[in-house]
Write a structure and sequence with these properties.
Blueprint (H helix, E strand, L loop, with lengths): L1 E6 L3 H4 L5 H8 L4 E6 L12 E3 L7 E3 L1 H14 L4 E11 L2 H8 L3 E6 L7 H6 L3 E4 L9 H12 L10 H4 L18 E2 L2 E2 L9 H19 L1 H5 L3
Parallel strand pairs: 1-2, 1-6, 5-6, 5-7
Antiparallel strand pairs: 3-4, 8-9
Helix pairs in contact: 4-6
Bound molecules: adenine.
The site of adenine (ADE) has 12 residues, from strand 5.
Keywords: Cytoplasm, Methyltransferase, S-adenosyl-L-methionine, Transferase, tRNA processing
Subunit structure: Homodimer.
GO molecular function, one term: tRNA (guanine(37)-N1)-methyltransferase activity
């Protein structure tokens, strides 16, 4: 998968791709991530990428021209499956959306700033608008990172153990069951006996049960929305 991220603050984005799973996915050649500084596409002497909004009002708006130049240049080099805009008024990111995007080949992610982008950018170039939650960030960069992390770990070969992404919380609309590791007893606090029984079918049934109980308790909305 190739990810092109368009931003006015590339420095905010780089280090998370230099550690842990995202770094390994790049090292293994499974993912390529490129950062594009929008200011490099400004024709303005001051490298300006935003301007006052028509009609008045507080807050600057990101101009169409540098964004058009950047996206058009990328599109002239290869085809893209999605051009995603990170914005608080987009569809809220969930596991289903992460799964869908993980199947794409090339994607562009545009990070908004200030009051957002000129609406014509959204009308002309954007295929999908994503929010990471009902709160407003200073820019789309941190949202883009969360989207990349959620997507990249789903790409086959990225996680060592393929099944571990499949058993994540939300993959079957259920939260994950509790997990334990050694020692089996610590300060008198014991691991549930079933987990050390070696009875795989019973362990699976216990896990399903616990996942269901936990979801019912913490996120009953997930069970209601199952159909
Ligand atoms: N930009 C600002 N707030 C955001 C949010 N909640 N999700 C995605 N991008 C954003």
């Amino acid at each position: 998968m190739r990810i092109d991220i368009i931003t006015v603050v590339p420095d905010l984005l780089k280090s998370p791709f230099e550690a842990s799973i995202m770094q390994r996915s790049i090292a293994k050649g499974l993912v390529e991530v490129n950062f594009h500084n929008l200011r490099d596409y400004s024709t303005n002497a001051y490298k300006q990428v935003d301007d006052y909004q028509f009609g008045g009002g507080a807050g600057m708006v990101m101009m169409i021209e540098p964004i058009d130049k950047c996206i058009s240049e990328l599109k002239s080099q290869r085809d893209y499956d999605e051009v995603i805009y990170m914005t608080p008024d987009g569809e809220t990111l969930n596991q289903k959306i992460a799964n869908q995007i993980s199947l794409q080949g090339n994607i562009i992610i545009l990070c908004g700033h200030y009051k957002g982008v000129d609406q014509r950018v959204r009308d002309q170039f954007i295929t999908r608008e994503i929010s990471i939650g009902d709160y407003v960030l200073s820019g789309g960069e941190l949202g883009a990172l969360i989207l990349c992390d959620a997507v990249i770990r789903l790409i086959p070969g990225v996680l060592g153990n393929e099944t571990s992404a499949l058993t994540d919380s939300f993959q079957d609309n259920l939260l994950a069951p509790p997990v334990y590791t050694r020692p089996a007893e610590y300060k008198g606090w014991k691991v549930p006996e079933i987990l050390t029984s070696g009875n795989t079918p019973k362990i699976e049934a216990w896990r399903e049960d616990e996942a269901y109980k936990r979801t019912l308790e913490r996120r009953p909305d997930l069970i209601k929305n199952q159909s």
